[in-house]
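FIELD: query
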Amino acid sequence: MSDTIASFKKRINVLVKAISEYKAEGGTVNPGANEILDYKAGKTKYLQNDVAKAVIDVKKNAWEFVDNRTADPANEILLLDIINKINELRQTDVVNILERKISDISLSLARIIPLPCESTSNNQLIFDTPKLPEGIMDDIMADLNEIRKCFDANCYRSAVIICGRVLEAALNRKYFEVTGNDLLETSPGLGLGKIIAKLSEKGVKFDPGLTQQIHMVNQVRIYSVHKKKDAFYPSKGQTQAMILYTIDVLRKLFSE
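FIELD: result
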Protein backbone atom coordinates (compact mmCIF):
# COMPACT_ATOMS: atom_id res chain seq x y z
CA MET A 1 0.00 0.00 0.00
CA SER A 2 1.30 3.44 -0.88
CA ASP A 3 2.49 5.80 1.83
CA THR A 4 -0.15 8.37 0.90
CA ILE A 5 -3.02 5.93 1.39
CA ALA A 6 -1.53 4.68 4.66
CA SER A 7 -1.06 8.26 5.87
CA PHE A 8 -4.62 9.19 5.01
CA LYS A 9 -5.98 6.07 6.73
CA LYS A 10 -4.19 7.20 9.90
CA ARG A 11 -6.14 10.46 9.76
CA ILE A 12 -9.36 8.52 9.33
CA ASN A 13 -8.44 6.38 12.34
CA VAL A 14 -7.77 9.50 14.41
CA LEU A 15 -11.28 10.70 13.57
CA VAL A 16 -12.78 7.30 14.41
CA LYS A 17 -10.98 7.31 17.78
CA ALA A 18 -12.13 10.88 18.53
CA ILE A 19 -15.73 9.91 17.78
CA SER A 20 -15.46 6.82 19.99
CA GLU A 21 -14.08 8.80 22.93
CA TYR A 22 -16.75 11.47 22.50
CA LYS A 23 -19.49 8.81 22.52
CA ALA A 24 -18.01 7.23 25.64
CA GLU A 25 -18.67 10.50 27.49
CA GLY A 26 -22.30 10.53 26.45
CA GLY A 27 -21.90 12.25 23.11
CA THR A 28 -23.74 15.44 24.10
CA VAL A 29 -22.86 18.75 25.69
CA ASN A 30 -25.44 20.30 28.01
CA PRO A 31 -25.91 23.88 26.71
CA GLY A 32 -26.51 25.15 30.26
CA ALA A 33 -23.49 23.46 31.83
CA ASN A 34 -20.51 25.47 33.05
CA GLU A 35 -17.59 23.89 31.23
CA ILE A 36 -15.09 25.37 33.67
CA LEU A 37 -16.77 24.23 36.88
CA ASP A 38 -18.38 21.05 35.54
CA TYR A 39 -15.59 18.54 34.83
CA LYS A 40 -17.78 16.17 32.78
CA ALA A 41 -19.16 19.01 30.64
CA GLY A 42 -15.67 20.39 30.10
CA LYS A 43 -14.28 17.02 29.09
CA THR A 44 -17.19 16.36 26.72
CA LYS A 45 -16.70 19.75 25.08
CA TYR A 46 -12.98 19.05 24.75
CA LEU A 47 -13.67 15.71 23.06
CA GLN A 48 -16.25 17.35 20.81
CA ASN A 49 -13.58 19.81 19.67
CA ASP A 50 -11.25 16.88 18.98
CA VAL A 51 -13.86 15.43 16.62
CA ALA A 52 -14.24 18.77 14.83
CA LYS A 53 -10.46 19.13 14.44
CA ALA A 54 -10.16 15.58 13.09
CA VAL A 55 -12.88 16.28 10.51
CA ILE A 56 -11.00 19.40 9.39
CA ASP A 57 -7.75 17.43 9.11
CA VAL A 58 -9.39 14.70 7.00
CA LYS A 59 -10.96 17.25 4.65
CA LYS A 60 -7.78 19.31 4.41
CA ASN A 61 -5.70 16.32 3.34
CA ALA A 62 -8.24 14.59 1.14
CA TRP A 63 -6.31 15.28 -2.05
CA GLU A 64 -2.94 13.93 -1.02
CA PHE A 65 -3.49 10.52 -2.60
CA VAL A 66 -4.53 11.77 -6.05
CA ASP A 67 -1.55 10.07 -7.75
CA ASN A 68 -3.03 6.68 -6.90
CA ARG A 69 -5.61 7.16 -9.67
CA THR A 70 -2.92 6.08 -12.14
CA ALA A 71 -2.39 2.71 -10.50
CA ASP A 72 -5.46 1.13 -12.04
CA PRO A 73 -8.46 2.43 -14.02
CA ALA A 74 -10.75 1.14 -11.27
CA ASN A 75 -9.28 3.74 -8.90
CA GLU A 76 -10.66 6.62 -10.91
CA ILE A 77 -14.30 6.41 -9.85
CA LEU A 78 -13.34 5.27 -6.34
CA LEU A 79 -11.18 8.33 -5.69
CA LEU A 80 -13.82 10.68 -7.06
CA ASP A 81 -16.37 8.98 -4.81
CA ILE A 82 -14.08 9.26 -1.77
CA ILE A 83 -13.36 12.94 -2.40
CA ASN A 84 -17.08 13.67 -2.81
CA LYS A 85 -17.87 11.85 0.44
CA ILE A 86 -15.11 13.68 2.31
CA ASN A 87 -16.42 17.02 1.03
CA GLU A 88 -19.79 16.09 2.54
CA LEU A 89 -18.33 15.68 6.04
CA ARG A 90 -19.50 18.37 8.45
CA GLN A 91 -18.15 19.30 11.87
CA THR A 92 -21.76 19.70 12.95
CA ASP A 93 -22.83 16.19 11.88
CA VAL A 94 -24.23 14.16 14.75
CA VAL A 95 -22.09 11.23 15.81
CA ASN A 96 -24.09 8.44 14.15
CA ILE A 97 -24.08 10.31 10.80
CA LEU A 98 -20.32 10.92 11.05
CA GLU A 99 -19.74 7.25 11.83
CA ARG A 100 -21.78 6.17 8.80
CA LYS A 101 -19.96 8.58 6.48
CA ILE A 102 -16.54 7.51 7.77
CA SER A 103 -17.48 3.85 7.39
CA ASP A 104 -18.41 4.46 3.73
CA ILE A 105 -15.11 6.28 3.11
CA SER A 106 -13.09 3.51 4.78
CA LEU A 107 -14.78 0.84 2.66
CA SER A 108 -13.90 2.75 -0.50
CA LEU A 109 -10.30 3.31 0.64
CA ALA A 110 -9.90 -0.43 1.19
CA ARG A 111 -10.79 -1.08 -2.45
CA ILE A 112 -8.11 1.21 -3.94
CA ILE A 113 -5.42 -0.57 -5.95
CA PRO A 114 -2.12 1.03 -4.85
CA LEU A 115 0.72 2.19 -7.05
CA PRO A 116 3.47 -0.38 -7.65
CA CYS A 117 6.20 -0.24 -5.00
CA GLU A 118 8.85 0.71 -7.52
CA SER A 119 6.83 3.65 -8.76
CA THR A 120 7.47 6.93 -7.02
CA SER A 121 6.06 10.39 -7.49
CA ASN A 122 8.41 13.28 -8.13
CA ASN A 123 5.58 15.82 -7.83
CA GLN A 124 6.12 16.96 -11.41
CA LEU A 125 3.17 17.66 -13.66
CA ILE A 126 3.41 15.13 -16.47
CA PHE A 127 0.58 14.29 -18.84
CA ASP A 128 0.21 12.89 -22.34
CA THR A 129 -1.84 14.96 -24.74
CA PRO A 130 -4.76 12.89 -26.05
CA LYS A 131 -5.73 12.74 -29.72
CA LEU A 132 -8.08 15.64 -30.48
CA PRO A 133 -10.19 16.75 -33.46
CA GLU A 134 -8.39 19.17 -35.76
CA GLY A 135 -11.04 21.83 -35.21
CA ILE A 136 -10.08 22.31 -31.56
CA MET A 137 -6.55 20.91 -31.48
CA ASP A 138 -4.69 24.23 -31.68
CA ASP A 139 -6.86 26.04 -29.13
CA ILE A 140 -6.81 23.22 -26.60
CA MET A 141 -3.08 22.66 -27.03
CA ALA A 142 -2.54 26.36 -26.31
CA ASP A 143 -4.70 26.05 -23.19
CA LEU A 144 -2.90 22.92 -22.00
CA ASN A 145 0.46 24.65 -22.39
CA GLU A 146 -0.93 27.59 -20.42
CA ILE A 147 -2.18 25.23 -17.71
CA ARG A 148 1.28 23.69 -17.40
CA LYS A 149 2.87 27.13 -17.08
CA CYS A 150 0.34 28.20 -14.45
CA PHE A 151 0.90 25.02 -12.45
CA ASP A 152 4.68 25.36 -12.56
CA ALA A 153 4.34 28.98 -11.43
CA ASN A 154 2.03 27.96 -8.51
CA CYS A 155 -0.85 29.89 -10.11
CA TYR A 156 -3.35 27.19 -9.21
CA ARG A 157 -6.57 29.17 -9.53
CA SER A 158 -5.61 30.18 -13.05
CA ALA A 159 -4.85 26.57 -13.96
CA VAL A 160 -8.25 25.38 -12.70
CA ILE A 161 -10.09 28.17 -14.52
CA ILE A 162 -8.43 27.17 -17.81
CA CYS A 163 -9.36 23.53 -17.14
CA GLY A 164 -13.00 24.62 -17.14
CA ARG A 165 -12.50 26.42 -20.43
CA VAL A 166 -10.91 23.30 -21.96
CA LEU A 167 -13.88 21.18 -20.91
CA GLU A 168 -16.34 23.70 -22.37
CA ALA A 169 -14.50 23.68 -25.70
CA ALA A 170 -14.37 19.87 -25.74
CA LEU A 171 -18.05 19.37 -24.90
CA ASN A 172 -19.14 21.99 -27.42
CA ARG A 173 -17.05 20.25 -30.07
CA LYS A 174 -18.59 16.89 -29.16
CA TYR A 175 -22.06 18.38 -29.57
CA PHE A 176 -21.08 19.80 -32.97
CA GLU A 177 -19.79 16.41 -34.10
CA VAL A 178 -23.05 14.72 -33.07
CA THR A 179 -25.56 17.32 -34.30
CA GLY A 180 -23.77 19.60 -36.76
CA ASN A 181 -24.93 22.56 -34.66
CA ASP A 182 -22.51 24.95 -32.95
CA LEU A 183 -23.73 25.75 -29.43
CA LEU A 184 -21.19 28.56 -29.19
CA GLU A 185 -23.21 30.36 -31.84
CA THR A 186 -26.76 29.24 -31.02
CA SER A 187 -26.56 29.06 -27.22
CA PRO A 188 -23.41 30.80 -25.96
CA GLY A 189 -22.70 30.71 -22.25
CA LEU A 190 -24.25 27.33 -21.48
CA GLY A 191 -22.89 25.69 -18.36
CA LEU A 192 -21.14 22.33 -18.50
CA GLY A 193 -24.11 20.58 -16.92
CA LYS A 194 -26.50 21.89 -19.57
CA ILE A 195 -24.17 20.91 -22.40
CA ILE A 196 -23.98 17.38 -20.99
CA ALA A 197 -27.78 17.32 -20.76
CA LYS A 198 -28.08 18.36 -24.40
CA LEU A 199 -25.61 15.67 -25.44
CA SER A 200 -27.57 13.09 -23.47
CA GLU A 201 -30.74 14.15 -25.30
CA LYS A 202 -28.92 13.35 -28.55
CA GLY A 203 -28.06 9.85 -27.39
CA VAL A 204 -24.51 10.47 -26.20
CA LYS A 205 -23.93 8.29 -23.15
CA PHE A 206 -21.61 9.34 -20.34
CA ASP A 207 -20.38 6.85 -17.79
CA PRO A 208 -20.82 8.00 -14.15
CA GLY A 209 -17.08 8.45 -13.68
CA LEU A 210 -16.86 10.90 -16.57
CA THR A 211 -19.75 13.08 -15.40
CA GLN A 212 -18.29 13.09 -11.88
CA GLN A 213 -14.93 14.25 -13.22
CA ILE A 214 -16.54 17.07 -15.21
CA HIS A 215 -18.69 18.07 -12.23
CA MET A 216 -15.66 18.10 -9.92
CA VAL A 217 -13.59 20.31 -12.22
CA ASN A 218 -16.55 22.61 -12.76
CA GLN A 219 -17.26 23.01 -9.03
CA VAL A 220 -13.65 23.92 -8.23
CA ARG A 221 -13.59 26.28 -11.22
CA ILE A 222 -16.81 28.00 -10.06
CA TYR A 223 -15.47 28.51 -6.54
CA SER A 224 -12.24 29.85 -7.99
CA VAL A 225 -13.89 32.33 -10.36
CA HIS A 226 -16.91 33.72 -8.56
CA LYS A 227 -16.63 36.12 -5.67
CA LYS A 228 -17.39 34.43 -2.38
CA LYS A 229 -17.27 35.52 1.23
CA ASP A 230 -13.98 33.61 1.56
CA ALA A 231 -11.73 33.43 -1.49
CA PHE A 232 -11.01 29.89 -2.62
CA TYR A 233 -7.45 28.95 -3.47
CA PRO A 234 -7.04 25.41 -4.81
CA SER A 235 -4.10 23.53 -3.34
CA LYS A 236 -1.38 21.97 -5.46
CA GLY A 237 -2.96 18.55 -5.01
CA GLN A 238 -6.44 19.79 -5.92
CA THR A 239 -5.11 21.53 -9.00
CA GLN A 240 -3.14 18.48 -10.09
CA ALA A 241 -6.30 16.38 -9.73
CA MET A 242 -8.32 18.83 -11.80
CA ILE A 243 -5.71 18.81 -14.57
CA LEU A 244 -5.49 15.01 -14.62
CA TYR A 245 -9.28 14.70 -14.71
CA THR A 246 -9.50 17.28 -17.51
CA ILE A 247 -6.97 15.36 -19.63
CA ASP A 248 -8.83 12.12 -18.94
CA VAL A 249 -12.14 13.67 -20.02
CA LEU A 250 -10.57 14.76 -23.31
CA ARG A 251 -9.22 11.25 -23.85
CA LYS A 252 -12.60 9.63 -23.21
CA LEU A 253 -14.62 12.12 -25.26
CA PHE A 254 -12.55 11.66 -28.39
CA SER A 255 -11.26 8.10 -28.12
CA GLU A 256 -11.79 5.96 -31.18
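FIELD: remark
Residues 3-110 form one domain.
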